């Protein structure tokens, strides 16, 4: 799918970089252009993409902290700059725009919904959000920010592909050391999705194309992505079970929103060498996904790539009824209620708060 990426905020910029470099490394050429937008100039140091600093009048390149309302305001104020930087990148061949951000922070959390809203007004092509949910060990501000941002972005974008930061981390890593690994995992999985349909071998009828991704996301709301891969036998006939069991793993243990299985629509993509892909296996896998998602709208197809493995990628559209989302929203709402109570209990005089503080001084 010929895509233009806009990363907003720190996580947005880093993920956009990871996606663009995976696409280049694989030679998919699905990522046609990319831009990183931020209010913090220091975050650009590790970003080899075109960058655009916004909010200079308000925050002078220092970022917005965790203030996503300020993030939203700055994006609104500087929208014309961002839109004009994007207008030269979005062309007649662009099939989709992805606005990429961490939903728990400030710049991306607040800015992404504002930008997505404007982009959907101006362009006829789909505008998708790619949003990262804070891990469960992150503080309540992140959860509240993400809850508010997620609601708004899901409404403003044509669909919001959500990735839980707990989902694709490699075991044993702390959050901060783990970002690079998580970003790599996201880039591989989302990168294969974008690459589907861009394959030069795109001749067989069974090969997935961009319109199937767009149709799967057409119902809007929240989407998720599942992924698993397994070594494959040389012969397609021996890979029927490989395909069905890899698809089960992609859905049940490899999802970007763990536990989200009920969906309005789905697309099952089997990536690997054409000679190794069993048609019967793909059809069985598609049928299994139909039962599991309780959706009658399940598409299936191949993505021919050179590999001695077979991968199953499952895009689910309309997963907001899933328990995972409900649990996250409850967590965000609880955090918001607790924060409001703390504020209510706090005495009006800040001096009193300081004196009452249970925290011991250093001396
Ligand atoms: P912003 O710059 O104000 O938009 O804030 P951030 O992009 O730093 O957003 C903070 C949220 O994004 C937190 O929930 C972090 O866990 C998450 N985050 C920050 N950096 C990364 C990253 O490189 N990868 C991933 N997956 N998440 C990140």
TrEMBL record:
The gene is cetZ. Residues 341-354 have a biased composition (Basic and acidic residues). It comes from the Archaea. This is Tubulin-like protein CetZ. It comes from Halohasta litchfieldiae. It is found in: Cytoplasm. Keywords: Cell cycle, Cell division, Cell shape, Cytoplasm, GTP-binding, Nucleotide-binding. Residues 2-201 form the Tubulin/FtsZ GTPase domain. SUPFAM superfamilies: Tubulin nucleotide-binding domain-like. Transmembrane segments: none annotated. GO terms for cellular component: cell division site; cytoplasm; microtubule. HAMAP family: CetZ.
